[in-house]
Amino acid sequence: MRRCLRAIVMLAFLLSVLTSMTSGAVREITFWVMPNAPQDTHTAWLDSSIEEFRKETGITVHYEIVGWGDAWNRLVAAITTGEGADVVQIGTTWNPQLAAMKGLARLDPAEYGSAGAFMPANYESATYKGAAYGVPWFAETRCLFYNTDHFTQAKVQPPGTYAELVEVGKALVKARGAGTAIAIAGNQAWDLLHNWAIVLWAFGGDLVSPDFKKATFNGPEGVAAMNWYVDLVRTGLASKACAEYNQPNADAAFINGNVSMAFMGPWNVADIMHDNPSLKYDIVEPPVGPKGRAAFSGGSNLAILAASRKQADAKAWIKFLIRKDTLISYTKDLTHMLPATKEAFADPFFSTGVNRAFKAALEYATAYPPLGVWGSIENDITGEFKAIFTDYVTGQLGPNGVQQHLNTAAQRVDVSLKNER
Amino acid sequence: MRPRRVVQRILLYLAVGLVVTVVLVPYAWMISGSFKETLELQSSDVTVAGLRPTWIPRRPTLRNYREVNTSVPMLAYFRHSILISLGTMAVATVLALMAAYALSRFNFRGREIYTVSVLATQMLPGILFLIPYYLVFTTISRRTGVPLRDTYWGMIFTYTSFALPFSIVMLRSYMNGIPLEIDEQAMIDGCTRTRALWTVIVPLATPGIAAVAIYAFIMAWNEVLFASVLTGRVTRTVSVGIMDYVTATSSNWGGMMAACIVTGIPVLILFTAMQRYIVEGLVAGATKG
Question: Is the pTM of this model over 0.90?
Answer without folding.
Answer: no
